[in-house]
């Protein structure tokens, strides 16, 4: 096992940190201090991405499905929501330099497409197609064989995670609203992923035997056990994320309710 020194991954991590620190400084000069918790979420998201792409997990993913699955969970399921929390308004408007931000803002077609993809009834199907599509044997094994396909796999997982989390976190608002429609939305999104994890647990033959049947025994486990543990990781993470998000949504909803009740009293 060895750490990855992929220049593209290193540049991505360093650029993400540099852009964020720049945005925090710009806002500080304008009199706005980005909350410490929000900053911590961004740095934690970048750290998860760095661990997934630069640690021994990356190379070990070619030998164990556990490692490969852990990498995907780190860079998408865990990192994406943390990064969205980190760019909560007004940070997202200052994250990119003006010469980059202005042309993007003027690309009305791209903006309309992203707004459409972020709709709850669009985001979940897109995410499910990405998630399940890449786990078919031909696609998953193609990513193991070809580095460019593997990069595309990572990028699509991150994109899908961002799309499915955006309606819940709503980073363009200063504060996440506790709207109760998010409860079935979160349940639907996480349960969709849990079915895939359950499939890995219940299968009695290795889904990617061409690769892991040879390498998993070298680490002291069978390919089937490797697959079942990887599926269990998916199930556990989806369950924990679902419970945490539901608790947060209900908590925010109660706060919003209390605020709405206090407002007329203050006004009167």
Structure explained in plain terms:
With 268 residues, the protein is an all-alpha fold. The protein has one domain. It is 78% helix and 0% strand. The protein contains twelve helices and no strands. α1 packs antiparallel against α2 and α2 packs antiparallel against α4. The longest helix is centred in the last third of the chain and has 45 residues. The protein starts with 6 loop residues before the first helix and ends with a helix.
Report the biggest beta sheet as strand number plus sense, adding barrel if it closes. Answer: none
Query: Total number of helical segments?
Result: 12
Radius of gyration: 20 Å
Mean pLDDT figure:
90
Number of strands: 0
User: Which secondary-structure class do the elements indicate?
Assistant: mainly alpha
- Shape label: globular
Count structural domains.
1
Strand content: under 5%
Low-confidence stretches: none
* Residues in helices, as a percent range: over 70%
Provide a quick synopsis of the model.
It contains 12 helices and no strands. The protein is mainly alpha-helical and 268 residues long.
């Amino acid at each position: 096992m060895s750490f990855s020194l992929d220049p593209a991954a290193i540049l991505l991590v360093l650029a993400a940190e540099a852009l964020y620190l720049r945005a925090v400084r710009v806002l500080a000069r304008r009199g706005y201090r980005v909350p410490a918790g929000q900053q911590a979420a961004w740095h934690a998201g970048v750290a998860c991405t760095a661990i997934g792409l630069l640690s021994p997990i990356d190379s070990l993913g070619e030998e164990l499905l556990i490692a490969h699955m852990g990498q995907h969970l780190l860079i998408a399921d865990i990192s994406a929501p943390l990064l969205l929390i980190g760019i909560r308004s007004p940070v997202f408007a200052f994250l990119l330099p003006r010469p980059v931000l202005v042309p993007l803002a003027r690309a009305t077609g791209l903006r309309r497409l992203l707004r459409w993809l972020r709709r709850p009834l669009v985001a979940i199907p897109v995410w499910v197609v990405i998630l399940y599509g890449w786990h078919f044997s031909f696609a998953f094994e193609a990513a193991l064989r070809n580095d460019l396909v593997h990069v595309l796999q990572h990028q699509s997982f991150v994109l899908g995670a961002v799309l499915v989390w955006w309606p819940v976190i709503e980073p363009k608002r200063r504060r996440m609203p506790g709207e109760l429609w998010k409860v079935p939305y979160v349940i639907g999104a996480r349960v969709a992923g849990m079915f895939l994890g359950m499939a890995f647990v219940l299968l009695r033959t290795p889904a990617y035997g061409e690769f892991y049947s040879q390498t998993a025994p070298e680490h002291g486990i069978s390919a089937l056990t490797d697959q079942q543990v990887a599926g269990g990781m998916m199930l556990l993470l989806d369950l924990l994320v679902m419970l945490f998000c539901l608790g947060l949504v209900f908590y925010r909803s109660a706060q919003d309710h209390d605020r709405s009740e206090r407002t007329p009293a203050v006004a009167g």
